UniProtKB/TrEMBL annotation:
Name the record gives this protein: 2-oxoisovalerate dehydrogenase subunit beta
PANTHER family in alphabetical order: 2-OXOISOVALERATE DEHYDROGENASE SUBUNIT BETA, MITOCHONDRIAL (PTHR42980:SF1), 2-OXOISOVALERATE DEHYDROGENASE SUBUNIT BETA-RELATED (PTHR42980)
Keyword Oxidoreductase among UniProt keywords: yes
Entry-linked Gene3D superfamilies: 3.40.50.920, 3.40.50.970
GO terms, biological process: branched-chain amino acid catabolic process; response to nutrient
Assigned EC number: 1.2.4.4
One of the Pfam families matching this protein, by short name: Transket_pyr
Gene Ontology molecular functions: branched-chain 2-oxo acid dehydrogenase activity
Keyword vocabulary terms for this entry: Oxidoreductase, Thiamine pyrophosphate
Limits of the Transketolase-like pyrimidine-binding domain: 21-196
Cofactor(s) listed: thiamine diphosphate
InterPro entries xrefs: THDP-binding (IPR029061), Transketo_C/PFOR_II (IPR009014), Transketolase-like_Pyr-bd (IPR005475), Transketolase_C (IPR033248)
Function according to Swiss-Prot or TrEMBL: The branched-chain alpha-keto dehydrogenase complex catalyzes the overall conversion of alpha-keto acids to acyl-CoA and CO(2). It contains multiple copies of three enzymatic components: branched-chain alpha-keto acid decarboxylase (E1), lipoamide acyltransferase (E2) and lipoamide dehydrogenase (E3).
Length: 343
């Protein structure tokens, strides 16, 4: 080795070791990465700038990128949505935050009537490259309007993608993909697991594919399908079933709309049984769509009726009964055993 080569090695910058981070930190990391590499990306919402967001998802971004790219807005969700659609129509890539899941309802007019229709309305000449970030779901003992699972509202709307990650790594990769997508994406973040555990995530800008279900665990006896925070309980249920000699395959849907039904159908063809887990109310929840597709396209593969473990057809009860409302490991295990004819 000559002296020049040795000098280059000695002065080279060390490669940073990927850190173990929480899901909320993965969101912040993905936002910062894309803002560094694409000047058209900006963030807007209530308290996202100076305060860094109510959950601190945007902490430090205004200091890095300035108030023109990290905008604190009035407490007016209708205006936030309208401004976001307008920015996207003019070539920007806005990322709006709905501070809580129950605050999205005033935004629906702009999202459904305009953002979701741009491509169709203009026969492909225009698109609407925006992301609406929605802290989603129960389990944090919050007041009314702060703990809702309303993903089915958006899955019924043509022209929208609906994404719901379940881990730090998938949150990072899927958010990057959502920002880069030319069409509107509703990105729902399970706030119950924002800081529940850490995972090593490389800040390398590598997006994960949208519209893909992720098989998190192989199995042969039964298929467990879930998304968002409930994936954790579903994996724990699979562990408990394994202790009783039952092999459960676990699928994280991740992108609800458009649905990668082929991955679910392939799993059910192997196992013959399926349990769908979500915290939204049972009636017309997105699990009903998956169950209907299985009835239409996989009937001859099913050895038992599809089971659903869901929230109840009520508003989520406040505080003391909140965790009783949400799907539990024991409820998932019991449903699996019913499908297997064990109970």
């Amino acid at each position: 080795m000559n002296a020049a080569t040795q000098a280059k090695i000695d002065t080279a910058q060390p490669v940073a070791t990927p850190a173990a981070i929480t899901l909320i930190e993965a969101i912040t990391q993905a936002l910062a990465y894309e803002m560094r590499h694409d000047d058209s990306v900006l963030v807007l919402g209530e308290d996202v700038g100076v305060n860094g967001g109510v959950f601190r998802a945007t902490a430090g971004l205004q200091q890095q990128f300035g108030p023109e790219r990290v905008l604190d807005t009035p407490l007016d969700e209708t205006t936030i949505a309208g401004l976001t659609v307008g920015l996207a129509a003019q070539g920007m890539k806005p990322i709006a935050e709905a501070q809580f899941d129950g605050f999205v309802y005033p935004m629906l007019d702009h999202i459904i009537c305009h953002a979701a229709r741009f491509r169709h309305r203009t026969r492909g000449r225009l698109s609407c490259p925006m992301v609406l970030r929605v802290p989603w779901g129960g389990g944090i003992r919050a007041p009314e309007h702060h703990s809702e699972a309303n993903e089915a509202l958006f899955t019924n709307v043509p022209g929208l993608r609906v994404v719901l990650p379940s881990s730090p790594a998938r949150a990072y990769g899927l958010l990057l993909a959502a920002i880069r997508d030319p069409d509107p994406v509703i990105f729902m973040e399970p706030k119950r697991i924002y800081r529940q555990y850490k995972e090593v995530v490389a800040d390398d800008g590598e997006a994960l594919p949208l519209d893909v279900c992720y098989v998190l665990r192989d199995g042969s006896d039964i298929t467990l399908v879930s998304w968002g925070a409930q994936v954790k309980e579903t994996l724990e249920a699979a562990d408990k079933l394994a202790g009783e000699g039952i092999s459960a395959e676990v699928i994280d849907v991740a992108t609800l709309k458009p649905l990668d039904f082929a991955t679910i159908a392939e799993s059910v063809a192997k196992t013959g049984r399926c349990v769908i887990v979500h915290e939204a109310p049972k009636t017309a929840g997105f699990g009903a769509e998956i169950a209907a597709r299985l009835a239409e396209e996989s009937m001859y593969d099913l050895l038992a009726p599809v089971e659903r473990v869901t929230g109840y057809d009520t508003h989520i009860p406040l505080f003391r009964l909140e965790m009783k409302y949400l799907p539990s490991v024991d409820k998932i295990v019991a449903a699996a055993k019913r499908a297997l004819g064990h109970g």
